[in-house]
Structures are given as C-alpha cells and as structure tokens.
Write a structure and sequence with these properties.
The chain is of the alpha/beta class and 289 residues long. The protein has 9 helices and 7 strands. Helix 4 packs across helix 6 and helix 5 packs across helix 6. The two termini are 27 Å apart. The chain binds S-adenosylmethionine. It catalyses: a 2'-deoxyadenosine in DNA + S-adenosyl-L-methionine = an N(6)-methyl-2'-deoxyadenosine in DNA + S-adenosyl-L-homocysteine + H(+).
Length: 289
C-alpha cells in the first residue's frame, strides 16, 4: 500500500474504504482516467492497466518515476532548498521547462523534481494555473516539508512498472478497457459553493457537457462488460437516473484542501457504480445499506 507523493485537490484517501468497498471482488485490469494524486491507484497497487490525466506535468512525473532509476529523482529532489527566494526561482524554472517542446531525459527529470518540490512547499498544496498555463501558486508556510519522498518514489517505481500512462482526455479508456476490467473515475467536481471551486485543476475546466460525455462512456463500458465505479458531487447524480444498471450512494467526505479554512468539513459525495452488491468487496464499507 503506497501513499501518494503529491498533495492533490480531491485526493481520495479519506474515502478509500467507501470506494474500494464497491470494487468487484475480482477483475482483470484496473484503469484510472482521472488519476490526479493517485490515492486509489497507489492504495490498490494494481498490476498492469492504465492511468491518465489531462495535466501533462503530472504525467511527466509519473513517467519519470516509472522509467528512470528512482535514485536519480530522489537525488535531484534532495538538491532543493527551504527558502522563499529559491521557491520563486524554482517556480520560474518549472514554467520555463514546461514551454520546451522536445525535452531531454534530464530536463524531464528536473521538471518532475521541481513539481514534487513546489507541490510540497506551495500554499496549501494547491495546483493552479493562470490563463497562460503557468503554475502560479505562492509559497506556503511549512516548518518541515518533505519534498524528497524517497520511500514513496521507490515504491511507486515498482507499482508503475507495467502500467500504461496516458496524457489526454478520459475517453482514451474506451480503447484501453476490455471485458472484465475495472475503471474508477474521479472527475473534477462541479462546485458545491461559490467559494469551493473544485473545477480549478486545469486552465480548461470541466463542465456539464463533460459530465454527460462521461456518463455516456460509463454506459458504453457497462455494455462492454466493464465494471465502473465513479465518484462525484451530488448534482451529478441526476445524470445517472436513467442509466440502467447503475446505483447511486451518498457518503460524507472531508475535503482536506480548501483555501478557505472555514469551508473545510463534511460534504456529501456520491459514488455511482454498475457493480452489483453481490459482486462488491463491501468488507471495507462503513455502512451496509
Ligand atoms: C478529482 S481529481 C482526481 C483526484 C485523485 N482521485 C486523487 O486521489 O488525487 C480530477 C483530475 O482530473 C484531471 N482532469 C480534468 N479534466 C480531465 C479530462 N477531460 N480528462 C482527464 N483528466 C482530466 C485533473 O487534472 C485532475 O487531476
């Protein structure tokens, strides 16, 4: 069981029992098209299968962890400094590297390392881009941040070994998944209030049409014999009312990342699945409804 390397909005650590309790007891390969910080993927440590995210810096990090000697990334991570001026220089370098078209292996390693450093030292562990796609989160105030993450990088290197890593839209999984596989979707949420804008992961956002596209894909995967589990915010549940074979469960979730401290706390979350109860693991569920 590996812990995530990054802090990531919408991270699923608190909900792991509720999510994995609805996974089927047996499945072939596991796919996670909105992998983000990867709490569920790392917890599961699946063999093979695929992960994907639209965020290309995140994908570069996972590819570097899979493809390079983990000790090279760990050594690069150890070179960073806990200093405000260093942070802003590192942020500039991170954004300059992002602009390069053809990166060398060492430039990709450096970009991956800067990402871990910035994520671990930035304000609230946020990921935010401006309209030009530049990472623009200010420095955070941490006494002792761990941006080396040595043990997790070594462990994740092994877990990722046979995993396909994609960088694009979630629809890729239509080609990648086949009968007997399991797909877990954790898309960006619709905002639950005006102060909690959880669609802010990427300059392009994720709107209702994307949620409908995702529902249509879930229905198609169901017809292919693929198990589907999906987490989302309550307003999305209505899209699944007419989706035959899918059930909706409401659970409470604590949002760890929120720039407004007063707005942290319990929020309802929905879990939608086509896995029949009799085939679910269920042992980790807090309630057996
Ligand atoms: C709720 S987060 C996933 C959090 C993850 N489960 C975790 O534990 O950290 C949603 C992710 O979807 C990505 N994303 C946004 N739009 C996407 C799209 N159209 N296709 C694939 N990924 C997308 C975002 O970059 C973000 O990392």
């Amino acid at each position: 069981m590996v812990e995530p390397i990054l802090k990531w909005a919408g991270g699923k650590r608190q909900l792991l029992p509720e999510i994995t309790g609805r996974f089927p007891v047996e499945f072939e390969r596991y796919h996670e098209p909105f992998v983000g910080g990867g709490a569920v993927y790392f917890h599961l440590e699946p063999e093979g299968g695929s992960i994907n995210d639209l965020n290309d810096r995140l994908v570069t990090l996972y590819e570097v962890i899979r493809d390079r000697d983990p000790e090279a990334l760990i050594a690069e991570n150890r070179s960073h400094e806990h200093d405000e001026e260093y942070y802003y220089d590192a942020r500039d370098e991170f954004n300059e590297l992002h602009e390069l078209d053809d990166k060398t292996a060492d430039e990709r390693l450096r970009e991956a390392s800067l990402f871990v450093y910035l994520n671990r030292t930035c304000f609230n562990g946020l990921y935010r881009e401006n309209n030009s796609g530049e990472f623009n989160v200010p420095v955070g105030r941490y006494a002792n941040p761990d941006w080396v993450q040595a043990d997790r990088i070594r462990a994740l290197h092994d877990v990722l070994r046979d995993t396909a890593i994609h960088n694009g839209d979630f629809e890729y999984v239509r080609e990648e998944a086949s009968e007997g596989d399991l797909v877990y979707f954790d898309p960006p949420y619709e905002p639950v209030s005006t102060t909690a804008d959880f669609t802010d992961y990427h300059a392009e956002g994720f709107d209702r049409d994307d949620q409908r596209r995702l529902r249509d894909l879930a229905v198609d995967l169901d017809a292919m014999g693929v198990s589907v589990v999906l987490s989302n915010s309550p307003p999305v549940a209505e899209l699944y009312e007419d989706a035959e074979g899918f059930t909706v469960h409401v659970v409470e979730a604590t949002r760890a990342i929120n720039s407004d401290a007063d707005n942290r706390g319990e929020v309802a979350e929905v879990l939608i699945t086509n896995v029949p109860e009799a085939r679910q693991r269920r042992t980790t569920l807090s309630t057996f409804e």
